[in-house]
Amino acid sequence: MKRGANRGARVAGIVFVVGLAAGAAMAGGGHGGGHGGAMAEGHGAMGGHAHDRWVDPPAEYAGRRWDRWDDAALAARGREIFQRNCAVCHGSDGRGTGPMAASLQHKPADLTRHFHGGTGTKGDAYLFWRVSEGGTVEPFRSSGSAMPAFKGMLSEAERWAVLTYVHQAFHRGRTAAAQEARGHGDGDGHS
C-alpha cells in the first residue's frame, strides 16, 4: 500500500511541475510580469503550449504577496521539493523535458524562458494560485493540464519555497531585468 501511495505522490509531483510551468508561462514568468490583456501565443517548440490571455487569480489568492525571493535557505528547501515533485515533468534543468513530459497532453512549460521583471506583485498571487490549485481549475482543466493541486500535499511554506527555488534557478531576476531596461547587461543573467 505504501508503494502505491508513493507512486501517487510522484505522479502528483509530475503534474505539479506541468501546471507550475503552464502557470508561469501564462503569468509571463512571475511577480510583476502580469499582462493584464492579450498575450502572444506560444512559447517555442519546447514550451509547446499557447495561451491567449492572462487569467487573474481568484479573490482568495489575489492578495498573496511574497518578499523572500532572494532567500537562499528557502530556495535550497524548495530545490528538494522541486526535485521530488516537479522535475519529472519540468526536468531538473527546468526546461520542460522531464521523463514524463512527452507523455503529457499539455506539455510542461520551459521555466527558463520566463522571468520576474517590472514592478508590482500580481504575478506572486498568480503563481501561488497555480501551484496551489494546479490544473483542477479553469481554464487549465479544459486545456488538459495534468498538474495536481498542491494545496493538499504541500504546506503554504513549502509552496512558496518551490516558487522561490524556481525563481532563483530558472528565472531572470528583477535586477537583470531592470539593468536590461536601462540598456545594461545582456539580459541572460540571474540575480
What does this structure look like?
There is one protein chain. The chain contains 8 helices and no strands. The chain is mainly α and 191 residues long. It has one domain: Cytochrome Bc1 Complex, Chain D, domain 2, CATH 1.10.760. The longest helix has 26 residues. The C terminus is likely disordered.
Topology, please?
Elements: H1 2-27, H2 44-47, H3 59-62, H4 72-85, H5 87-90, H6 122-133, H7 156-170, H8 174-181
Helix pairs in contact: 1-6, 4-7, 6-7
CATH architecture: Orthogonal Bundle
Helix content: 40-55%
Order of helices and strands: HHHHHHHH
At the third CATH level, what is the topology name? Answer: Cytochrome Bc1 Complex, Chain D, domain 2
Oligomer: single chain
Strand content: under 5%
Instruction: Let me know the number of strands.
Output: 0
CATH class: Mainly Alpha
The tally of domains stands at 1
**What name goes with the CATH superfamily?**
Cytochrome c-like domain
Q: Structural class of the helix and strand makeup?
A: mainly alpha
Q: Radius of gyration, Cα only, in angstroms?
A: 15 Å
Roughly how many Å apart are the termini? 44 Å
Uncertain regions spanning at least 5 consecutive residues: 14-52, 115-120, 181-191
- What profile does the largest beta sheet have? none
Shape: globular
Query: Mean pLDDT score, rounded?
Result: 70
In DSSP terms (H or I, runs of 4 or more residues), the helix count works out at 8
